[in-house]
Design goal:
alpha+beta
Length: about 400
């Protein structure tokens, strides 16, 4: 647990809820750490009918994620040995006058949202600008809560607000968070209403499941009500090239949601499929090539021709984003991120001024006119999608 980022990985769900304590027979956890602050952060677990609570001394926060992982495993193991359900965990600080509730860190939250190993949000401070245990404690006791953003899904905002509720009795139990989690994780990962309906049919409660293309196609046609007479076979081939694992043609929740972020919205579905087909037809688009592979391809071509080349590709680190990679006359590799989120414009970053266009094709045309970008450069041959259109 880290005081500034507030992360605890607990049984594939990140959650801390706050409840009143009722003392029971304690059992003590000893930490396998040598530094004073981390060792002093381990206390006594106590249980009542609603939750398990950890009472610790003035060093409330474990100093690393590793310590948090260790503590979570011990917590789950102890509850299993005692035949207890894995419910919420509360972290308290012991002061000279006795135990006092100082912090209820209820996650899912803006800093982390994790299920089955799927990370949705990057780690960010709960309270930007507020650092240190004492300052965060006072900040929370004063009634402050992490910001909940308007663009977040309603299911996530509702759960966060309840987890941080001023009244402990209004905060959900761990099992109640788990009950809501299946819907929330899909709502967070997939920004499109039609896409969410497909996700809930195929992956609700089993986010790591791989589904066959046949199973996916059945759900896709059912939820989109696609009229196959209005599209050509190449549209579905292009979709398959984006969402299917190239080795076994299976589809994961993450891969489908990435596709929706890149090419959404899904309504009308015919336009959604056209956007996929049109981009894969571009000779300059190389799809799932990472930055290292892109640099290697460009370097290899440049070393034999001394010509400047470029390619576009998916950003594999940020959902919805793309990247432009090119090689300069002296062999220098340049990567430029194309910022794009669901149903938004395409913005070439690291450029002065940033180029902003409604489609990636128009952005490409703009780059071709810029001497510092692509005016004198050639398309790198060998798009992995070219065989689809032969």
């Amino acid at each position: 647990i880290n005081a500034e980022y507030g992360v605890l990985a607990l049984d594939s769900l990140v959650a801390i809820a706050c409840h009143e304590l009722e003392q029971r027979e304690p059992f003590v956890l000893e930490a396998p750490f040598s530094d004073v602050e981390t060792r002093s952060s381990i206390g006594t677990l106590r249980d009542n009918s609603q939750c398990t609570s950890a009472t610790v001394d003035e060093h409330v926060w474990l100093s690393s994620i590793g310590a948090g992982d260790w503590f979570a495993k011990k917590y789950v193991q102890a509850r299993d040995e005692l035949g207890m359900p894995r419910l919420a965990l509360e972290v308290l600080r012991v002061e000279p006058i006795g135990a006092r509730r100082v912090f209820d860190l209820s996650v899912p939250s803006r800093n982390a949202f994790v299920a089955g190993g799927v990370g949705v949000h990057n780690c960010m401070p709960l309270f930007p600008g507020v650092k240190g245990k004492q300052n965060i404690t006072q900040h929370v006791l004063a009634g402050n809560r992490p910001e909940i953003y308007e663009e977040w899904p309603k299911s996530l905002k509702t759960l966060l607000a309840l987890c941080w509720h001023e009244d402990p009795n209004r905060r959900p139990l761990f099992r109640e968070i788990q009950d809501k989690f299946d819907r929330v994780i899909i709502d967070v990962m997939c920004p499109d209403p039609t896409g969410r309906r497909i996700c809930k049919k195929l992956w609700k409660g089993c986010e790591l499941k791989k589904v066959s293309y046949e199973e996916f196609e059945e759900a896709f046609l059912e939820k989109t009500r696609l009229n196959l007479k209005l599209i050509r076979h190449i549209h579905l081939k292009a979709l398959c090239a984006i969402i299917c694992d190239p080795f076994d043609d299976t589809i994961t929740l993450e891969r489908f949601c990435n596709c929706v972020n890149w090419f959404g919205p899904m309504y009308p579905v015919e336009k959604f499929l056209e956007r996929i087909r049109d981009l894969l037809q571009k000779k300059w688009f190389h799809g799932f090539v990472n930055s290292n592979k892109a640099a290697q391809l460009l370097k290899t071509r440049w070393s034999s021709t001394k010509q400047q080349y470029y390619l576009y590709r998916f950003s594999l680190s940020t959902p919805g984003c793309f990247a432009l990679t090119f090689i300069e006359e002296d062999g220098t590799i340049v990567h430029k991120r194309i910022s794009h989120s669901f149903n938004s414009s395409f913005v070439l970053m690291n450029n002065s001024p940033p180029l902003d266009f409604p489609t990636i094709e128009l952005l490409h045309n703009g780059c071709l006119q810029d001497q510092n970008l692509l005016r004198s450069k050639k398309i790198l041959p060998g798009s992995p999608f070219s065989s689809l259109f032969e």
